[in-house]
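Record 1 of the preview.
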Amino acid sequence: MRLAMIGLGKMGGNMVRRLRRHGIEIVGYDRDSGIVSGLADECGMLAAGSVADAVGQLTAPKLVWLMLPAGAPTESQIEELAPLLGSGDIVIDGGNSNYKDSRRRGAWLAERGIGFMDAGTSGGIWGLENGYCLMVGATPEVAKIVEPVLKALAPAPDRGWAHVGPVGAGHYAKMIHNGIEYGMMQALAEGLDLLKGKQEFHYDLAQIAELWRHGSVVRSWLLDLTAEALKGDQALANIAPYVADSGEGRWTAIDAIEQGIPAPVLTLALQMRFVSQDEKGYGYRLLSLMRNAFGGHAVKSGGS
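->
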């Protein structure tokens, strides 16, 4: 089996490595030619000098997997791919695209006889060794053709991947997954912050996190990663208090509003990321002024 991988960053590159370990031939392309040649030398990936070159090295049905940033990069790449593909060929989007975009793109490609799969992909930099969790949306016919690839990428052939519904369903499931992830991360961060603040108990946060990993109801992979990180540094003095959001948390909150389904934990976790990104802190300055106005509370000076 042969597959083209477009986008060989941290995720795409590791997916190539994992697929090669399972004997799947990969034609790889990235704008950075150094990454392409490096992977070709390392794992026997077939190098491509352009998207057209990558597609040209495939046989029908041609499978092209995209690992690109959501939005315009994925959109323009699909538009470039369409004329290079024919009836029965398949485009797989493994990035974090909005499920609404995936449904639209799937319909647009279907008009041209080209299959489409939206593959919500979780696993990050650990996916190479542990496998990726894959939630995919596609027609049954497309899912069947891509199945060997999904089995190779997943933690095991019989688990960690699923055809969860029609086009759009994969990226929607990943969107909700990331919303839940925001909430879990926020809860762990707040709890450990409270422990750190209880100075009279002199808690060893690394010890507590490690303790919770075994037998507790809050054990999780996120806790595993947190415990490991705390072993090396508990003060985190060199870590900026800034937490980015990839966009999927926003889409989750918007969808909750559209459905009229309360999701306060997921939404508040997203809002807390916004707080960390507010360098000016203008809202908090206003709160301080309000407290002073109605209660005479002191206002701290300083700051930019």
